[in-house]
Amino acid sequence: MTRLEREKMGGRKQRCACFARELRIRPNSLDTTTPQAPKRPSTPTEAPTASITSITQGHESSKQRRLSIDSGSVGSSNAHSGSLTISLSSTRQWSFIKKICSWGVASFLASVACCRLLLDSADSTIVRKTFYAGIPRILYSLPVAAFGCALFLNISSWKFETHRSRQQLCVLVIYISGVAFAYELLALYSEAPIFLTQGGRPHSVLRYVMWAHATPVMVYALSMLSDLSTKRVHTAMLADVVMILAAIPGEYCSSWLVRYFFNTLSFFLFPFVLKEIYTMFTQAMDATAPNDRQAYTSLKFLRGFTLVLWSVFPVVWTLCQLDMIDSVMEEGLHSMADVFGKVGCCCRCCRCWTTRARLDATLSLTFRSPFAHLSLTFRSLAKNLYLIEL
What we know:
Blueprint: H1 3-25, H2 46-118, H3 122-133, H4 138-160, H5 164-188, E1 195-196, E2 202-203, H6 205-223, H7 230-245, H8 249-252, H9 256-286, H10 293-321, H11 327-352, H12 363-366, H13 370-380, H14 382-389
Antiparallel strand pairs: 1-2
Helix pairs in contact: 2-5, 2-6, 4-5, 4-11, 4-14, 5-6, 5-11, 6-7, 7-9, 9-10, 10-11, 11-13
């Protein structure tokens, strides 16, 4: 083989090797599409411009990366601080709920023991037995069934609930239902103390004690629907306690001047408490979404329903002072207002609540009328009602 043939053979092998290398690097090079025209090589004057542009773009991209990293770190720190604030407020709220519930249970039991052991004399025992002999048992067995069912359901919800806020609400409703259930159970078995007022009318002082322990917690539960300040919430709770307890010496004090003072104080505090409750519901209605008309309507109904129910109690008290209704009607109206106010309205309001700041959009899906809740409760306990009466 001559030298010329060897050179041709070597050039042919080199071209084949280059072609095979291109196939391995670019596997799509065998496409049958129209090949693009080769780019014109850049002139010496264009090369510095291209390098400057690439350097500028590199600086801008690195600056954007640094800005994004800084903004991400700031956002994560803000989110972390926000989560810490929420957790701290939730911890303080849970601590306050445990305090008011534990102190409320201890105070209520001490009040029952004081009324039953210290103040219940032989004359008051005769008054108590005579009073309960004339009251139909249905006026107490029905509230016992309603509060007992509500207590069982809320204990079950608290046991299986995973959301922290709803657990706190379940504790509040358990306390409210438990205090009312304890009083109605004592009244069912004729063990709630009855004393005669200065006007000679039998009066259940333990019912007022039950209201003084349950209604402030109801006010606190309703305040969770709004953005009301802590100072205003505590002021409303204190005014509610003073309003109820002031009516007790207004019934038993021998001096008419002292009685009128305490009754006037109680009546003057009642509009203030109602105004605060109205504000709580109004703020909750303003926090709803503009397109969520069902939640707005539900809260508006609950606001009117709560205000009307709370207004029943001073009306009943006034009718009793004027001797326009007897003891049977008084106990019936009080029991009905207690059941509708605590089981019907407050419990459903607490279940609608999701956060302290505003309502969730799922409010309209979770809300049901208090009448529907009560009818379901009464239907499920219709058979047990006769057993309780026996």
